[in-house]
Amino acid sequence: MFKELNPLLHSELRLAVMSILIGVEEADFVYLREQTHATAGNLSVQIDKLQKAGYISVEKGFKGRMPRTVCRITDCGRDAFTEYVDALSGYIGR
Amino acid sequence: MFKELNPLLHSELRLAVMSILIGVEEADFVYLREQTHATAGNLSVQIDKLQKAGYISVEKGFKGRMPRTVCRITDCGRDAFTEYVDALSGYIGR
DNA sequence: AACATTTGGTTTATTTTATAAACTACTTTA
DNA sequence: TAAAGTAGTTTATAAAATAAACCAAATGTT
Which domains are present in chain B? Predict the structure, then answer.
C-alpha cells in the first residue's frame, strides 16, 4: 500500500523544480526562481542537491556578460520522478 | 501553477495516517503502526500533531484492560486532505 | 568618475522536522 | 514472582528547509 517516498523528491521546492524541468528542454536559475517563488538561497541549495543526486544537470555559463545557470532533467531524474508520482498515488488514491 | 503544500500533510507518515483514516470509520494506534510500518515513537508524535491541527480526533480508552487509542478523521481533516491532494496535482501533473 | 543599485548567485546560520532511542506503566505468561 | 510483552510517551539527535548575510560583477545615476 504505502511505498516509500523518495525523500529527495518529497520536498516542495525540489518537486516544483523537477515538475518544471520534466516539461521543458531546459530552464535557467532565474526562471526557476520566478516560477517557484523561492528565494535564491533556497533554490541554490535545492538545485545543488538535485544535481548531486544526478536528477538534473547544471551548466554555469554566461548570457552576454551576465552569469547564467541552466538546468536540465536527466534520464535518471525522469525515472525517479515517475517512480515518486507512482508511489504517491498510493497515498492520495489515484 | 504551484499552490502551497500544507506542510502538516506533506509528511510521509502523517500523509499515510490521513490516507488510512480517510477510508475508514476509525483506526487504532496499533493498526496504524502496522499499516504504516512506523515506529511507535514516530507515530505517537505525528498523531499528536494531526490532532493538534484538528485534522483527527484521538480517543484514549481501554480494550479489556489494555490501553487503546482510537483515531478518526475530522471534517476539517478531510477538507485539508482534499485540498492537499488538489495542490499536489499541480506538481505531479494529474 | 564616483557611488548606489541591481543581478545572479553562494555560503552560513537558524529554525523546523523527522526519527530513533530510551523510558514509563501496566499486563500477561512461565 | 520474575521475565517478557504491549501500548504508548518523552527526550535526544540527525537531517532538512529556510532565511539572512554575503560576494562579485554589471548597470544606472549624478
Answer: 12-92 (1.10.10.10)
